[in-house]
Amino acid sequence: MHKRSPLARAGAAPATDLQVLVGSGTVLLRTRKRDGTWVGAPVSLVEKGDGTGAYFRTYNAAGKFKRLRNFPEVLVAPSTLTGRPTGPEVAGHARRLHGEEEATARRLLGARFPVLQRRLVPWYHRLRGWTTVHYQLTLDR
User: Fold this and answer.
1) Residue 106, pLDDT score
2) Rounded CA gap, 68 and 39, in Å?
3) Where are the domains of the chain?
4) Superfamily the domain 6-139 falls into
């Protein structure tokens, strides 16, 4: 017998993969290396607003930035702040943002995580001389 979640029993629509990932706040983002192995790193995630994707940020000296430049395919799973997965992994693609899209991602991340993503992360990136880079995550269907 299949057990239904409490939300399903209450008549609520089941959560989509994107809603589960965004609801967790932090996801384990796994990117592919040239040799085919996958490397994971936790990132903060915020919904795009129209339900078609989500935004995350990194910096230009990070390994994931370099790997995403070569392979936009990613695997994501809800996780703890330290990157321990707490749910199933789903496949998706990451696309680097520029201009107005990047400003929107910056604003949404700062609004959802005011201390970490509005203050600490940008300050630390500036301190180290790094450029903050924003991406859109779109899940494969």
Assistant:
1) 93
2) 11
3) 6-139
4) Electron Transport, Fmn-binding Protein; Chain A (2.30.110.10)
